[in-house]
Amino acid sequence: MCSDALVRDIKPAKVELEGGKEYFICACGRSKDGIFCDGSHEGTNCTPLKVQVQESKAYFICMCKTSAGFPFCDGTHKKYSAEDIGKNIQL
């Protein structure tokens, strides 16, 4: 978890990922889509998370950036409200 991360959303994003392919998942909450890294973390202490899934299927990506199983949603977003979107994560 990155202490400079922002809560991007209070629900996960459903994304189709291809098995065996490498992805760089946004950990800062600042990328354009909030899912995949676009370099927006520069100037923060955040770095994207490199992920490679085994199976091609839909996955739910954590958008609150605080899931214990990051980058995958574990329901942690339930501790946030709509007012938290765009604000620093709760450590």
Shape: globular
Largest sheet: 2 strands, antiparallel
**Structure annotation, total helices:** 0
- Helix-strand topology string: EEEE
Radius of gyration: 12 Å
Q: Could you tell me how far the N terminus lies from the C terminus, measured between alpha carbons in angstroms?
A: 8 Å
Which class do the helix and strand fractions yield?
mainly beta
As a percent range, the share of helical residues equals under 10%
Number of E-state strands: 4
What is the average of the pLDDT values? Answer: 97
- Which sequence of strands runs across the widest sheet? 1-4
Our count of domains comes out at 1
The portion of residues forming beta strands comes to 15-25%
Structure, explained:
The radius of gyration is 12 Å and the shape is globular. A two-stranded antiparallel sheet has the order 1-4. Strands 2-3 form a two-stranded antiparallel sheet. With 91 residues, it is mainly β. It has one domain. The chain is 0% helix and 20% strand. The chain has strands at residues 13-17, 22-25, 49-52, 57-61.
